[in-house]
Amino acid sequence: MAKINDTKILLKDLSEKKGTYLKYETEEVITWCNGCGNYNIQNALKRALTLEGFEPDKILFFFDIGCNGNGSDKIGGYTFHGLHGRAISAAAGACVANPNIKVIASGGDGATMSEGINHLVHAIRNDYPMVFILHNNHNYGLTTGQASATTPRGFGMNGSPDGVIADPMNPIEFVLGLNPSFAARSFSGDIKNMTDVFRKALKHKGFAFVEILQVCPTYNRATPQSWYWDRVKYTSDIKNYKADNLKKAKEIVEDFEKNIYLGVIYQDSKRENFVEKLPNRKNITTASVEEVNYCSIEKLLKEFE
Length: 305
Description:
Layout: H1 4-16, H2 18-23, H3 38-51, E1 59-63, E2 78-81, H4 87-97, E3 102-108, H5 109-115, H6 117-126, E4 130-136, H7 171-176, E5 182-187, H8 191-203, E6 207-213, H9 225-229, E7 232-234, H10 246-252, E8 260-267, H11 274-277, H12 298-302
Parallel strand pairs: 1-2, 1-3, 3-4, 4-6, 5-6, 7-8
Antiparallel strand pairs: 5-8
Helix pairs in contact: 3-8, 5-6
């Protein structure tokens, strides 16, 4: 849990940039359930953007279908609401076209680990310069609590009242097996840790994968706040832990029963991202969107008269 002194420092930093923080607020009515982890996740993201000095007009948000997607009009900035499981692919096109704008995409465990898992795999493989936030509440919350690929075995959910019979996927363990350049994990009950993780993800130049373990008080009663607080620990608690050791990173995420480590699990800050590796973009300082010129199609249209 965040220390009181740390929280005071964070609030002091925010108060000095209050004008920017308020720019991320909207007048739209929030419709998440009481106690939903999305409240804290979005607040932590707003704090991180403010503390890192980002203005809303320099941010492009991509939201997937799901409960997290209901936040697409609750945060200031440019927003795009994509198709189920397809937020990453849309975001990838945007960040490649204009690396000068910070692209942030988000999706739930259902959309990301099932419908859109192919997009996640290749986003990591290509190392697109963007931040992706996985909202993992272990169920399809928007469609009233069906089991997802991350729902623990034995959990009784709508659609599987006798309990899930398949073993769950461990998203961050899966991601680490794909040799990412950045993988982090946090918990929706810890705004301080989420803010810190988001700040580090925003400064990463490649594909920054951030898994947020999120409570769902309406449809997932098996893992409430107290369940996580009894298990979460921090990478800073591990003596001499260095986030550039992929082997060690894989070891500390295997356990999801007793020790759930939060923080930056792995980072390769030296790797070139997708845009930097493009041979036809070497020594070019402009973004692709800046190179789009007017082109008359009058001659083409006359061919069809």
